[in-house]
Amino acid sequence: MPRSYPARTSVETLSTRQKALDVNLDSRRYGTFAEIGAGQEVVRWFFRVGAAAGTIAKSMSAYDMKVSDAIYGRASRYVCRERLQAMLDYEHALNLDRLRETRGDTTAFFAFADTVSARNFHGTNQCHGWMGIKFQAHPRDEDSQIIIHVRMLDNEAALQQEALGIVGVNLVYGAAALNHEPELLVDSLLDGLSTSRIEIDMIEFSGIAFRHVDNRLMSLKLVELGLSGAAMFAADGEVLQPSEFFYRKAILVERGSFRPVCNVNLDMLRCAHEKFSALPSVEGKEIAQVMEITMNNLKSSGEIDLRDFLARADVIAACGMPVLISDYFQYYRLAAYLCGFTKEPIAITMGASSMKDLFDDQYYTQLQGGVLESFGRLFKNDLKIFCYPIEDRESGELVTSENFKTKPELQQLYEYIRNRGDIINLDNFDPACLKIFSRDVLAQIKKGDPSWEDKVPTSVAAVIKSKAYFGLPT
């Protein structure tokens, strides 16, 4: 008889051993484990708990690169999504070809794979890996798939391998028992672990079992649950892995609420890109541009409003831009995060009004060195800030980085940073954009005042009207 899994609540946690045993005792589940790079840490659990003969068709590890290439084909890198997908496709197809005719009516086949770079002897490598499972939720079902990217944070290789084994069991169990509840599946991935040991910065659901899943919401869930400090997706909704997206590129980030994306947001990015690309250290290099939304912003009204989040994601997508969701409210934390992916220059563009927050020392009370330490961290890797002017509504004065004023006790610090060339004035702006403020546009949308349409890109207006976003009256 097929084994029924216990119903899971958000507070219940099964042990790793119990999860592996539950899968082994489910007579429907049968498949392959293929692991490269850190030993057979996941399949070891299924062998160790007993009853593995009913679950494991094959276990293998192709450590040698030539052997791996002979089986799965050549790849540009061995620890990458491309290699993982080749492993999943090959092993799952092999099981179906060999076993579907004889036991396909009663068996839901699966292939689990991972390709990992655990800590080397000298501790000089990036410790991360790709892990996934391709499976049938029910016998004779169409295929479904879950892919994750993990970063291992333990300082010892043995501890990293142990953590990989646990998260792998969580993934296999989740695919078998929680595929109908993807949010609980995400929540369960670090059962038996903590975010001090493993970070999951990318997850993608696909296939028949997840046909109603919006991977953008799953990316948001990773950050909301603390499984990752940031997550990304492209304009078409495809989930992105940050280290691959930013790999060897210069980076330009615009932070905002994007409720909605207005003409001024695009002008700010255009101006910064023109100045940034002209710097000698950047000239001729590829620049990865991204719009970033912080969790603080998404939670500004309390709990996250998922429709509001999707509205922001859709209007950013209408501009052809990727989205970065981050839990790095302080800019120095964002800078440290991005510096982990590239050695090329990094820039952040912001309005003069946002500069006030940058110099507000209430945000740095957790640092022993306060605002001084925050700037030391922010600018230590030659990061640049491009300042977009703002028109003072009362006086009509143009506030730029040239005449910006902060607290008297911090003004000299500001002048020092600006004179170093770390804060760069954007004088190539479109004057028509200076009178556009997103909060005004949002209010006009909610009132049904049609004048808002002139203040946003045409593609953004079309999305807002077609889906009645941001409270647009219908």
What would your notes on this structure say?
It is a single chain. This protein is an alpha/beta fold and 474 residues long. The protein is 38% helix and 20% strand. The protein contains 17 helices and 16 strands. The strands form 3 sheets. It has an 8-stranded mixed sheet with strand order 8-7-11-10-9-12-13-16, sandwiched between helices. A 6-stranded mixed sheet has the order 2-1-3-4-5-6, sandwiched between helices. Helix 9 links the parallel strand 9 and strand 10. Helix 2 packs across helix 5 and helix 5 packs antiparallel against helix 6. The protein is globular, with a radius of gyration of 25 Å. The model has no long low-confidence stretch (mean pLDDT 93).
Task: Label this structure with key terms.
single chain; 474 residues; alpha/beta; eight-stranded mixed sheet; 17 helices
Number of strands: 16
Largest sheet: 8 strands, mixed
Roughly what fraction of the amino acids lie in strands? 15-25%
* Oligomeric state of shown chains: single chain
Computed CA radius of gyration, to the nearest angstrom:
25 Å
Order of strands in the sheet with most strands: 8-7-11-10-9-12-13-16
List segments where confidence is low: pLDDT < 50 over at least 5 consecutive residues: none
Task: Give the overall shape, derived from the CA principal axes.
Answer: globular
Mean pLDDT: 93
Count of runs of 4 or more consecutive helical residues: 17
Helix- and strand-based class? alpha/beta
User: Cα distance, first to last residue?
Assistant: 53 Å
- Give the fraction of residues assigned to helices: 25-40%
